[in-house]
Amino acid sequence: MPFLWGTNDCCIFAAAAVSALTGSNPMAAFEPYGTTRGSMRKALRRTLRRLEKAGGLKAIASVYLGEAVPPLMAGVGDVVLVMNAGREMLGVCNGVNVLAPGEKGIVALGMDAATAAWKI
Questions:
Q1: pLDDT at 79
Q2: What are phi and psi of 4, to 5 degrees?
Q3: Which of 74, 90, 115, 117 could tie 10 with a disulfide, CB 3.0–4.6 Å?
Q4: How many other C-beta atoms can be found within 10 angstroms of the C-beta atom of residue 24?
Q5: pLDDT for res 118
Q6: How far apart are CA 82 and CA 73, in angstroms?
Q7: 100 pLDDT band (50/70/90 cuts)?
Q8: Would you call 110 helix, strand, or coil by DSSP?
Q9: Could you state, in order of their start, the residue ranges of all structural domains in the chain?
Q10: Which tens digits make up the pLDDT trace of 56-73?
Q11: Which pLDDT score is estimated for 3?
């Protein structure tokens, strides 16, 4: 499935992986946030703006996944923060690369682009 905000973006992708591995979805209260209208959507936007000011996607992920660890500590199934084309995005470690949603489906990014990870 290609990248689509609120349906298959990097946060939804990472949360789905966490859910598959642990049975608990850290973003369940916000899905599907790309199509939700009303107060939930407004609350999410306010929260994201505050967290972005506090440290970007790393800060947002840490709220839901706990304290980040160095990327070299990432193992299979762990969530990883990578830089891709100058933008931060979340993906999932497959042991060698970071898998994330791309324009045409899943892309594999090198671990050398990783800046943080979260043990699942």
A1: 97
A2: -155, 120
A3: 90
A4: 10
A5: 97
A6: 14
A7: very high
A8: strand
A9: 10-118
A10: 889 888 888 999 999 999
A11: 78
Those residues whose C-beta lies under 8 Å from the C-beta of residue 47, and which sit 6 or more positions away, are none
Number of neighbours of residue 36 by Cβ within 10 angstroms: 15
Strand order in the sheet with 114-118: 105-110, 97-102, 87-93, 79-84, 114-118
Q: What is residue 97's three-state secondary structure?
A: strand
pTM listed for this prediction = 0.79
Residue 116 near residue 80 (C-beta atoms within 8 A): yes
Kindly state the tokens that stand for 73.
């500590």
Query: What string of H, E and C letters represents the secondary structure of 24-89?
Result: CCCCHHHCCCCCCCCHHHHHHHHHHHHHHHHHHHHHHHHHHHCCCECHHHCCCCCEEEEEECCEEE
**Distance between CA atoms of 17 and 15, rounded to whole angstroms?**
5
CA distance 93 to 98: 4
How far is CA 110 from each of CA 13, 92, 100, 102, rounded to the nearest angstrom?
A: 17, 11, 11, 14
CA distance 27 to 13: 10
